[in-house]
Automatic annotation (TrEMBL):
GO terms for molecular function: endonuclease activity. It comes from the Bacteria. InterPro entries: PLD-like_dom. Residues 219-284 form the Phospholipase D-like domain. It comes from Caldilineaceae bacterium SB0662_bin_9. This is NgoFVII family restriction endonuclease. Gene3D superfamilies: Endonuclease Chain A. Keywords: Endonuclease, Hydrolase, Membrane, Nuclease, Transmembrane, Transmembrane helix. The chain crosses the membrane at residues 14-39, 59-83.
């Protein structure tokens, strides 16, 4: 339907411009005749009388309807062009200067937008999470895919949280074409190394996260099951004890948190936030969610680099 509408619009525009072009061309030809023979009025008058007026009179039965049709077409073209471009101008002015969208029944929002999309500097996902997790008490993250940069940001969040603050990370999507023969905690560690493409640059970040795990400030679970879990959820308790969550499309990656256009909604203090926390607990306690150690991921990464 959309393609057909676009084709119809293109056809209308083409016909309008064709008709307008013919009108302009006729005007240009007439202007050229006037300028070329304007100083020779008698010659022009004789030419018009002999070759135009006489022919029209001789064939009046055919020429009169033809002249009427041409005049009618010219008027129709002028009216149609005025309507088409006038209507477009009115719509543009309405969009440009209207205080609210011209949608029946839709009201202007009374509260600040809870959406975070990374499209403008003041609406970055990472900036929002940085703010709510400063001295925060709790962080639960469920993502399909973490990157080295995203794990580095997780380590930074934990560093900035309350000394008694705790974080949990649930990774839900297995690497492509990779299935563990015997799901286990150690397999989950190798899963993380595979997820990071055995990148040696991940070693310092994994060492920091392993340190947080050893200090019992971070827990890791890896979901080794099909169907894979493609959800993205960041749930927290901030320094004042307020609970909230960010739900949407942002993975724990530099692109998802900062660079790439995403769409996430921030919820808090309502049933949606409570449902989000309950959902995370249910996924965390699934049989397919294997507790894992970043130290195992480090070992797998070192093994791959020594081969």
């Amino acid at each position: 339907m959309a393609d057909q509408s676009e084709q119809n619009t293109f056809g209308d525009d083409f016909l309008m411009f064709l008709a307008g072009g013919c009108t302009v061309l006729g005007g240009v030809v007439g202007l050229w005749l006037a300028l070329a023979y304007g100083s020779q009025e008698e010659i022009l008058r004789q030419f018009v009388n002999d070759y135009v007026v006489d022919r029209l009179i001789d064939y009046l039965v055919w020429s009169a309807p033809l002249i009427g049709m041409l005049l009618g077409s010219a008027v129709a073209i002028i009216v149609a062009m005025a309507w088409k471009f006038g209507w477009r101008a009115c719509k543009w002015l309405t969009r440009r200067f209207a205080a609210t969208p011209a949608v029946p029944g839709r009201k202007r929002p009374a509260t600040p937008s809870p959406l975070r999309d990374n499209l403008v500097d003041g609406n970055k996902v990472v900036a929002h999470l940085d703010a709510v997790l400063d001295k925060g008490l709790r962080l639960d993250v469920c993502v399909a895919y973490p990157s080295v940069e995203g794990l580095g940001r997780l380590a930074q969040w934990i560093d900035g949280m309350d000394p008694n603050g705790r974080a949990r990370l649930l990774v839900g999507s297995m690497p492509r074409n990779w299935t563990p023969l015997h799901p286990s905690a150690r397999a989950a560690g190798h899963f993380m190394a595979k997820h990071l493409d055995y990148d040696k640059q991940a070693i310092p970040v994994l060492e920091r996260l392993a340190g947080h795990q050893e200090a019992e400030r971070l827990e890791l679970c890896v979901r080794l099951a099909v169907p894979q879990l493609h959800a993205k959820l960041y749930a927290w308790i901030d320094a004042q004890g307020r609970e909230g969550a960010l739900i949407g499309s942002s993975n724990l990656t530099k692109a998802g948190l900062n660079d790439q256009g995403e769409l996430n909604v921030v919820v808090g203090g309502d049933d949606v936030q409570l449902h989000a926390h309950a959902w995370f607990e249910a996924r965390w306690n699934e049989q397919a969610a294997y507790p894992a150690d970043f130290s195992d991921a480090l070992s797998a990464l070192h093994e791959s680099s020594s081969m």
